[in-house]
């Protein structure tokens, strides 16, 4: 399956658990699509993630956080670093 097809399925709420992406190593992705794939078990090469510096907003809370290089869910990362509002954290 292509990366674009997998992203479309994920946006529709479908599973891509047993899917192999044919073009993941060559496909250029926006950071949101790359994050969506990463949260669903795919490893997106950093050099394939494209973004514009002007679209990145400074966030002092996030900027002061050390990244340990392990892929995982963004929500888990934010919660572990105290960056999720209390109303969205599980008790």
What is the fold's blueprint, element by element?
Blueprint: H1 3-11, E1 29-30, H2 31-39, E2 49-50, H3 60-63, H4 74-80
Parallel strand pairs: 1-2
Structural overview:
The protein is built from four helices and two strands. It has helices spanning 3-11, 31-39, 60-63, 74-80; strands at residues 29-30, 49-50. A two-stranded parallel ribbon has the order 1-2. The longest helix is centred in the first third of the chain and has 9 residues, at 3-11. The chain is globular and about 40 Å long. The chain starts with a helix and ends in an 11-residue tail after the last helix.
What labels would you give this structure?
91 residues, mainly alpha, two-stranded parallel sheet, 4% strand
Low-confidence stretches: none
Question: Would you list the SSEs in sequence order as H and E?
Answer: HEHEHH
- Into which percent range does the helicity of residues fall? 25-40%
The end-to-end distance, rounded to whole angstroms, is: 39 Å
Offer a concise description of the structure.
The chain has 91 residues and is mainly α. It contains four helices and two strands; from the N terminus they run αβαβαα.
């Amino acid at each position: 399956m292509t990366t674009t097809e997998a992203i479309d399925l994920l946006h529709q709420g479908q599973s891509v658990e047993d899917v192999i992406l044919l073009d993941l190593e060559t496909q250029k992705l926006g950071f949101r699509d790359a994050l969506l794939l990463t949260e669903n078990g795919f490893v997106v090469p950093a050099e394939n993630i494209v973004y514009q510096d002007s679209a990145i907003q400074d966030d002092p809370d996030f900027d002061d956080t050390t990244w340990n290089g392990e892929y995982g869910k963004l929500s888990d990362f934010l919660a572990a670093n105290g960056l999720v509002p209390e109303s969205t954290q599980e008790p």
